[in-house]
Specification:
Strands 1-2-3-4-5-6-7-8 form an 8-stranded antiparallel β-barrel. The chain is of the alpha+beta class. The protein binds biotin.
């Protein structure tokens, strides 16, 4: 039987011409036409695109932010926030906005500098040089990723306050822990 002439379409819609429906209408479900790939060949491309989309939308992931690189915004169990800039040779700088203080002074956003390893679930350390008072805090910790991709920084800190004399040294250092989670304000 002679096949009826096809409608002229200089740029045919690929979805229409190569969809399973279109393929079926031509009476060839497995391999459609010379110009259409077989249905089986189309599936991997669709799946790959779907996987890529899911990966980009997954918590803690974005196009250019691998997990447990500290770059980004974090908040802790006290309500303090910190922002860490880009990593350079394992070193970073950022700012720390503490929610609490041992002083009666007005809290100001203060600078921090630190380093981190580049392996999985890396350890790191950073120092906050408080600019509204003459104390210093050092944090050390490790980044963990759970099965949902959520990053948690478990840290311990030492807060050294300034004292007027060596006799007061015994009471100059506080110790504590903080847990940080990432703030997802936008895709970084
Ligand atoms: C000070 O009060 O001397 C300066 C601010 C200290 C804030 C401390 S650092 C450890 C703990 N974690 C925080 O987020 N804030 C407090």
């Amino acid at each position: 039987m002679v096949e009826p002439p096809r409608l002229h379409n200089p740029t045919p819609d690929r979805a229409a011409t190569c969809s399973p429906v279109a393929i079926k209408r031509r009476g060839s479900p497995a391999r459609s036409t010379d110009t259409c790939p077989p249905a089986a060949e189309m599936v991997p491309t669709t799946s790959l695109l779907l996987l890529l989309g899911l990966a980009l939308l997954a918590p803690g992931l974005s196009a250019d932010q691998p997990q447990c690189v500290l770059t980004g915004n974090w908040t802790n169990d006290l309500g303090s926030n910190m922002t860490i800039g880009k990593l350079s040779n394992g070193e970073f700088a950022g700012t720390y906005h503490t929610a609490v203080t041992t002083t009666k002074k007005e809290i100001k956003i203060s600078p921090l500098v630190g380093t981190q390893h580049s392996n999985t679930q890396p350890t790191f350390g950073f120092t906050v040089n408080w600019n509204f008072t003459d104390s210093t805090t050092v944090f050390t910790g490790q980044c963990f990723v759970d099965e949902h991709g959520k990053e948690t920084l478990k840290t311990m800190w030492l807060l050294r306050s300034h004292v007027d004399s060596i006799e007061d040294d015994w009471k100059a250092t506080m110790v504590g822990t903080n847990t940080f989670t990432r703030l997802h304000t936008h895709l970084e």
